[in-house]
Amino acid sequence: MVVETLSHPQTWALEQLTRLARHRPELVSAALNRLLSEDPELRWALVVGAYLERQINLGKAAELLGVHEMVLRERFLALGIPLRIGPADLAEARAEVEAIRAWFSSEQE
Prior knowledge:
The chain is mainly α. The protein has a domain at about 10-85. The protein is elongated, with a radius of gyration of 18 Å. It has helices at about 10-25, 25-40, 40-50, 60-65, 70-80, 90-109.
């Protein structure tokens, strides 16, 4: 009998979640949303991982973590997480401009 420990992921469960996501994406999405809302450490790890792998930009990472982009930028710097400075494309540039406008307008209130 093989006993899985906490140090080894349950490969079968991850594979089944991937399969289930193809057929019942709403079910997997709801479960992931609950898990991420209940476990801030996991949310941080997944968001930072996605940022480091260039799947999301700094603004999206900040949004997913529920912090302002400037706050996340400072936290990344303090932790030694490399910043990707400058937009990768026009859409990212527009998103950065909007984030800065929102930040300035919230400070004036």
